[in-house]
Amino acid sequence: MPKMKTHKGLKKRVRVTASGKIRYRSSFTGHLMSGKSGNRRRQLRKPNMLHSSLAKRIRIALGKA
């Protein structure tokens, strides 16, 4: 069988933590921030953790399973 390839687009967007969780950046942070409230902008700055039900599939796509 051939080796499984790493999904390069996903590799650029997520990071696997030491405990195996998937950390990613929020969307809607690029521009047009003036229409969003200050509280919403602060929340969007923080990195998010992916739900554990999706994390296993993401790790497989990254070759970290």
Kindly report the average pLDDT value: 94
Question: Which fold name fills CATH's third level, the topology?
Answer: Factor Xa Inhibitor
> What is the succession of H and E elements?
HEEHEH
| β-strand amount | 5-15%
Under CATH at level 1, the class stands as Few Secondary Structures
Quaternary structure state of the chains depicted: single chain
Overall 3D form = elongated
Which spans of ≥5 residues are poorly predicted at pLDDT below 50?
none
Strand order of the largest sheet: 1-2-3
The percent of residues in helical segments reads 25-40%
**Please, how many helices?**
3
Largest sheet: 3 strands, antiparallel
Structural class assignment: alpha+beta
Question: How many distinct folded domains?
Answer: 1
Give a topology summary.
Layout: H1 8-11, E1 14-16, E2 22-24, H2 38-45, E3 48-49, H3 52-62
Antiparallel strand pairs: 1-2, 2-3
Report a brief summary of the structure.
Helix content is 35%, strand content 12%.
